[in-house]
Amino acid sequence: VQLVDVLSGSASHKDEFETKLTEKQERDNAVVLQWQMQKNLRQEKKLLKQQKQEAERFQDMQQEKRQVQTQFYLWQLYQINQEINQRQEELQQVQDRVTELKGEQEVAGGSVKEAKKELSALRRKLNQRQEDDLVRINT
After folding, report:
1. How far is CA 72 from the centre of its chain?
2. Quick one: residue 40, left, alpha or beta (phi over 0 = left, psi -120 to 50 = alpha)?
3. How far apart (Å, rounded) are the C-alpha atoms in residues 29 and 32?
4. Rounded mean pLDDT of the chain?
């Protein structure tokens, strides 16, 4: 190969050729490196876009969760309020019944008092008659 180079005159250009070859390899390496960097940047950009979308979905889901919880708490409060109202109505009915029964008790108490008076009067009359009958029998 060296004989061909000497005869063709390319031996004198060997250093220049090797320099140019080294420069070409360096440029090729730079191009490959640049292409890899661009590829990496595109991948990072895609990954960041996906992460942003995921973060937005997460925020949306968090907001929806808060709304659902708020609705649930409002529903619970409504149910508690309904039960309070129902219990108050029941309490009012019981209080009304107690008042009614107290009135009946007073009336019945008055009737019992009257009946006791009447019984007492009848017993006195009975005792008086028995005494009168004994006096008549003895006389």
Report:
1. 5
2. alpha
3. 5
4. 92
